[in-house]
Design goal:
Layout: H1 13-48, H2 51-86, H3 88-97, H4 99-121, H5 128-157, H6 162-165, H7 168-172, H8 177-200, H9 207-219, H10 222-236, H11 239-248, H12 250-275, H13 283-306, E1 311-313, E2 317-318, H14 327-333, H15 355-365, H16 387-395, H17 397-400, H18 411-427
Antiparallel strand pairs: 1-2
Helix pairs in contact: 1-2, 1-5, 1-8, 1-13, 2-3, 2-4, 4-5, 5-8, 8-9, 8-10, 8-13, 9-12, 11-12, 12-13, 15-18, 16-18
Length: 429
Amino acid sequence: MNYPFWEVPILGGSLVIAIIAIVHVFISHFAVGTGFFLPLTEQKAYREGDSALLAYLKKHSRFFVLVSLVGGAITGVGIWFSIALVSPQATSILIRNFVWGWAIEWVFFIGEITSALLYVYTWEKVSRQTHVILGYVYGATAWLSLVIINGIITFMLTPGRWLETGGFWDGFFNPTYFPSLVMRTAVSFALAGLYALITASFQPGELKPKLVKLAASYIFPAGLVVPLAGLWYAAMLPPQLRHLVTGGAPVQTNLFVGSLVVAVLLFVYVYFVIYRRPQSLNLASALLALVLAFAPIGGLEFIREMIRKPYVITGYLYSYQIFTDRADELKATGLLASARWKTSRAVGAAATEDPAAGADLYRLQCASCHTIDGYNALRPLVRGWDLDTGRMYLEHLDQVNAMMPPFLGTEVERDILAGWLVQLNKEGR
């Protein structure tokens, strides 16, 4: 309520965040895993005196810098831009509560950029030992960035004791912190192997089978580690959240099952099509493996966001950017009277005479998750409603759907929003 509202037609602000964030995860986790793939493989090449493998690594490191530093940086900035516009109150809370965490992460980020560029541009210009150390410096700083970011991401879903203490460490080392870190680390190594298949597909002769075997050694362990870490993660979720992906909410359950099925298909595909027949590897088959990996990673990230509803920060901040402890106050005094950014200046009973009041209430109560005709559209949901239906639904909103926050406002404001929603039926004809 204290910030302007950024309305995104068709897509909606929440979907914009999701698209950018999922692409960023797919790139940033590859960057973390490759931070270890490169120096470990370089050491292997030195031990075996394999000049062809070293030549491949030199090319692969350039590919890595292009994807991670350019793609990762663009999507990283995109996340900050979109969350600041869509969820400014939540962004403010994350900055204020974890300011030193962000400061440390930026130190690691600068270390990542510096060491990655030095690694790429000092091939054959520094000693072997120094070059390998540069690779490990990058790997360490990239993983430590993940260590920091993981604490803040998991905090939003499971803030744990922070709700009582407000302490940095209580929020950072929250219930899902460690299983998430293990799972994301395993995914990072798997993505390092999958991306390596892209550049390996262009390699001639006997080098290609060697690279396929090497990539597989990074991919296949995730098939064991990720499910175990996932079970640990699920065990640390509050029961009501765990219930949503185990039958309590059809969309989340189906997305979860679909993600698991595609993940299994990924490992079956990599084993039988690529690992067993390495010479058949080409760009198309390598890209298909990446697409198969993108689906479950994107699906599970999407699920994590969905089961957090009706909150942005569980138990603390509702998805429409209102603190949970203000619910009773706003039901008594009204939302329009408290909102700073609105079109209508009328409050109370006078607002019933102002057509803009309904649109204001839609933006304040609904538009953070819904659009009118696009993603998560409201018009189909209110089809057939009359005013009494709208009133009843808004009065019991959080009881009808556990993922919906309660309507916060007076009875007059509830009637205004109900009338505005019912009007969508007439406009859609």
